[in-house]
Design a protein that fits this description.
The protein is mainly beta. It has a single domain, classed as Jelly Rolls, CATH 2.60.120.10. Strand 1 and strand 2 form a beta hairpin.
Length: 182
């Protein structure tokens, strides 16, 4: 696996080796030893799978308790995946990074604890798989507004369209009101 640094401190694009031929392909998506050698000492406690239709935007989610690191990937379709740094002590506090994840490029994104995370579906639908370092704790989940002007994420939403949001995400916090991690 190749671990590619991003402009955000501690966020990495992970590019697995893909072995393919006319019959299909094989790739390893998680190997504890490979990640440890690369400097990541991770323990995953929960795997999740969501399917979303075109134009759905999920996020930007974070949990103040049971803070989750996430290793995310797409097994069908395509998303524009985004992480926003919410760590007070980070040199990249308030900055965002986005990357296209799809079934063809096989890339994954490592989003450590202390970040808001979300994605926008650019294909007809997308299957989104992610491993989490802590349990889902709905009582402490919050959302950062997807369109906060201070953060300024450049989502690939077509002109004249609005993404489809859950009620919770439609009421996301603006940057000035969102809590920070130490």
């Amino acid at each position: 696996m190749k671990f590619v640094e991003t402009p955000l401190k501690d966020v990495y694009v992970v590019e697995p080796k893909v072995f393919g031929d006319s019959r299909g392909f094989f790739m390893e998506t998680w190997n504890e030893e490979t990640f440890q050698v690369a400097g990541f000492d991770l323990k995953f406690v929960q795997d999740n799978h969501s399917r979303s239709a075109h134009g759905i935007l999920r996020g930007l989610h974070f949990q103040m308790e049971h803070t989750q690191g996430k290793l995310v990937r797409v097994t069908s379709g395509e998303v524009f995946d985004v992480a926003v740094d919410l760590r007070r002590s980070s040199p990249t506090l308030g900055q965002w990074f986005g990357v296209s994840l799809n079934a063809e490029n096989h890339r994954m994104l490592w989003v450590p604890p202390g970040f808001a995370h979300g994605f926008y579906v650019t294909s007809d639908y997308a299957d989104f798989i992610y491993k989490c370092t802590d349990i889902y704790h709905p009582a402490s989940e919050q959302s950062l507004a997807w369109n906060d002007p201070t953060v300024g994420i450049e989502w690939p939403v077509p002109p004249g369209e609005e993404p489809q949001l859950s009620d919770k995400d439609a009421q996301g916090l603006n940057w000035n009101d969102a809590p920070r991690f130490d």
